[in-house]
Design brief:
This protein is of the alpha/beta class. 40% of the residues lie in helices and 18% in strands. The protein has four domains: 89 residues, OB fold (Dihydrolipoamide Acetyltransferase, E2P) (Beta Barrel); 105 residues, no CATH class; 190 residues, P-loop containing nucleotide triphosphate hydrolases (Rossmann fold, 3-Layer(aba) Sandwich), CATH 3.40.50; 157 residues, P-loop containing nucleotide triphosphate hydrolases (Rossmann fold, 3-Layer(aba) Sandwich), CATH 3.40.50. α8 runs antiparallel to α10 and α19 runs antiparallel to α20. Bound molecules: adenosine-5'-diphosphate and magnesium ion. GO terms for molecular function: 3'-5' DNA helicase activity; ATP binding; ATP hydrolysis activity; DNA binding.
Length: 682
Amino acid sequence: MNPNLNQSVMALKGIGEETAQNLAEMKIFSINDLLEYFPYRYDDYSLRDLAEVQHDEKVTVEGKVHSEPSLSFYGRKKSKLMIRLFVGRYLIKVVFFNQPYLKNKLIVNETITVTGKWDAHRQTITASEMQSGPNGKIKDFEPVYSLRGKITNKGMRKFIYLAFQQYGQSIEENMPISLLQTYKLLNRKDALQVMHFPKNAEDVKHARRRFVYEEFLLFQLKMQALRKFEREHNPGISQDYNLSKVKEFIKCLPFPLTTAQKRVVNEIMTDLKASTRMNRLLQGDVGSGKTVVAAIGLYASVTAGFQGALMVPTEILAEQHAQSLNDLLAPFQVRCELLTSAVKGKRRREILADLSNGEIDILIGTHALIQDEVSFQKLGFVITDEQHRFGVEQRRVLREKGENPDVLFMTATPIPRTLAITVFGEMDVSIIDEMPAGRKSIETYWAKPEMLDRVLSFVEKELAKSHQAYVICPLIEESDKLDVQNAIDVHTTLSHYFQNRFKVGLMHGRLSSDEKDAVMKAFSVNDIQVLVSTTVVEVGVNVPNATIMVIYDAERFGLSQLHQLRGRVGRGSDQSYCILLAAPKSEVGQERMRIMTETNDGFVLSEKDLELRGPGDFFGKKQSGIPEFRVADMVHDYRTLEVARNDAARLIQSKAFWTSPEYEYLKRQLEETGVLEGEKLD
Ligand code: ADP
Ligand code: MG
């Protein structure tokens, strides 16, 4: 950057120490900071036809004063000034509160311009601003800055104006000209100028495009550089698996793989074989068959002489995975063991010993897997299920239990593509976008809580067909007493309702894992027909005979979570149902319920979820990992994000990027983040 722009804002004539201090509170120190401090919105003062203005909307009109102003005082120091104004073909009222001095400026038959809030019912504008004469051109479209201290919007505009006047010549381009030309983007100086002094919304849009692209390109360059250097600095292990054994294993599965499963298996096998380390995200909707794919990968790794680990977020899920992997792999002389906090004493010591001497091939468990006492003899392949529930740190610890093992992250919460390539930009992404044949789609209904009786008789009909039912009560935090109470209450109500016709079980996070286990077992062998539960059943649980799910207070869940929950039914060959009991008050809440009844596609739902909730809320508060962009918006600018990603990937691989001065600025930005030394971004 031109050194002139790095000077303190005090270099500007008209900015003294006090102003500089106020600006510092806004993190504006240098002249460049000032130039890059963009308005957060623009007020449109262009004239509009009142017929098109909504009630309560802010509007600017130009008109002829029709009546002598009437001024009245009330209260202490309060006043109301009123005139009638001819605006085009309308005669409206304009009121000014507490500005009695304007009276002399309101002269009958003279033209004035007024800005204020339009009350369509009373045909009145409550004015916030007034100027004599027709609408001044400068005021058509005004940037509004977010401000601190004593700085006013007008002042801010003046400072920026001064900055352009004194240092405009020093603004240099930093982006490669070729990219600007390709996308017809404004050069840096013009774009900055337009952001601060636009004529209209179109102008802003055009200038903004440049900064959005710049921001995304830099971000994606970091991701791509990280990926490149991770690969170069951390050579992985090339796993020389036994292909014919793997093929035999696939042949013995009780079903043929779907095309999507085959594709993903191939991607995983290629990664295992390669000498670079696998760093892959596998996305697939609930029930799309990720577990089988994981089993094939783990088996391949075992035939290459390595151990594997599968880490999942809950004990129930760990037990289920251990069970299903064991069913699949035991016939092939693969030893799978389960390690959770419930495994104690002698048994635990045995497992730990057998693990470190290599007698256990695959270890399945919860967080327990990443404790210090757990050591593998030769860990080659690590899979985490529902990866976003584990923090970045936990993922790293697990990875470091072996020497650069291959890593696969699985998730059943489809992540919208724009988020996936942002948050997981340094990973490869595999997608299972096809359901095994013969699945019936789940029919989803939205019912108001007062329809509970009808809902329950519908449930009863399913139970009468020897099917089973889930009843889900909201649980936001496992420790939340109220929510557990909620499940307990529903359990009591339903036990009473179904009397001795059907047995109702209860499951929540407060139960010990033995108790949970007992309830789950009873449900899976149909000793219990109705399972009232908090969201602990959310992931992975598999009871194909359950064909109906009722979700209480469904509006309290996000779309992705509702979809996850719903995935517990529809696992067998019978038609399944999901009933959302909800009385959402907001438009958005109602929209969410409607979407749930309309689609079973997890990717569609996740896109909607992102749209309705925004990126910040998408992953929940705990671990977002979502970068903050200054100008860009991941949801609305996703097309640009894709373009920038492709460009970044291409640039990182190109020779020109590393040699040509055209890319100097971009490279320097990468250097500043440490990516070029192979340091991690997270
Ligand atoms: P996910 O882990 O993606 O939710 P699972 O791996 O648990 O899905 O698979 C859900 C069910 O579908 C399991 O009962 C599994 O055995 C079965 N399944 C998996 N792949 C296929 C397939 N290709 N054809 C038929 N059934 C399959
Ligand atoms: Mg699964």
